[in-house]
Write a structure and sequence with these properties.
mainly alpha, 9 helices, about 180 residues, 2 domains, Tetracycline Repressor, domain 2, Arc Repressor Mutant, subunit A, elongated
């Protein structure tokens, strides 16, 4: 049998991602998870703690997925492009509803757990590209990594708003051209 914590996280992930964090009440999560309210407070300090765990898990799963795609290639430039390959497969999944962090940020109040988790994710994303750009030997780390983040963001937005799973492939093509002209 699945633990109450795991059932709560699975229900929260499904509901928060598909319907929005603020629009889903805790009673709905409890009902979907099939657990009593006491289980929530045994495992989490309330909805904010559950939201924090949901976004933390989303972040960890995405970081793991990106690492898996990067492990398939050796060339530092190909590791950069592997991020867009991971996006392409994500966008093609049934039920894709955009980036969980962009969605959370749209609902975030100042100082909320959504805002904090989104900032943590964004810091990771910028650092990811900065490390990759440095490893590939490019000279203007800040500019190039920022440009790659913009391509990443644009692909996410186009995939969600335009229902265009090919957005990541287009972003990858632009990233390839950008890398070909960037200074080393």
């Amino acid at each position: 049998m699945t633990s109450a914590r795991k059932r709560l996280l699975e229900a929260a992930d499904r509901l928060f991602y598909n319907e929005g964090i603020r629009s889903v009440g805790i009673d709905r999560v409890l009902e979907e998870a099939g657990v009593a309210k006491g289980s929530l407070y045994y495992n989490f300090n309330g909805k904010d703690d559950l939201v924090r765990a949901y976004l933390h898990d989303r972040h960890a799963l995405w970081a793991e997925r990106v690492a898996e795609y990067q492990a398939r290639v050796d060339d530092p430039e190909q590791k950069i492009l592997a991020v867009f390959d991971a996006l392409a497969d994500l966008f093609a999944e049934p039920g894709f509803r955009g980036c969980a962090f962009l969605n959370a940020a749209a609902e975030a109040q100042p100082g909320s757990v959504e805002e904090t988790a989104t900032k943590d994710f964004r810091t990771w994303l910028h650092e990811l590209f900065a490390v990759l750009v440095a490893a590939a030997g490019f000279s203007d780390l800040r500019l190039l990594s920022t440009q790659l983040v913009l391509l990443y963001d644009g692909a996410n937005i186009a995939a969600a708003l335009d229902a265009d799973p090919a957005a990541a492939r287009s972003a990858r093509q632009v990233a390839t051209a950008l890398l070909a002209t960037a200074q080393r």
